[in-house]
């Protein structure tokens, strides 16, 4: 499976204007053509993954509103299934997969979700096993290309398990700052350079409102 991290960030790598805030205000700096680029990229992949916090703060649809019938399957990992049941991704006609853990599964919620045609997967005991998840997404659902539009902690888990093939960033020419703010990759991080994940620059393309940066996994 090809996994692409896709994100909108500031020059200093921030995803929002503060801890716990929605990323939506940053999108006001894009024009319609920029938004169309994001949505059409969704139309090129089989699946799109965001974390539970993105669902809680932004409540996105995660669809491609510029092209009909080109919506990816939505994948939401949540260790304890603490996802708002009134979220758009759980209540529209799009296809959604909720991923949780053995110790975090809630049979009542699972049955409720299945009544809404939302599929549920158990991957991992205490933490979501993203390597196992990718394998099951490919073998059971035919997903061979995955777009990850996650926050810092989801991105960290995907990087930590060495699953990222490509990084695509729409870097806005702004500085946000904030020591507690969400960055592209949070989590524990690496304290030794030899363990850091390495990528090579594949594309740098200045646009009117942002710079497109694309990196490929170094081999």
Automatic annotation (TrEMBL):
One of its GO terms (molecular function) is 5-amino-6-(5-phosphoribosylamino)uracil reductase activity. Residues 6-199 form the Bacterial bifunctional deaminase-reductase C-terminal domain. Pathway: Cofactor biosynthesis; riboflavin biosynthesis. Keywords: NADP, Oxidoreductase. Pfam families: RibD_C. GO terms for biological process: riboflavin biosynthetic process. This is Riboflavin biosynthesis protein RibD. It comes from Paenibacillus anaericanus.
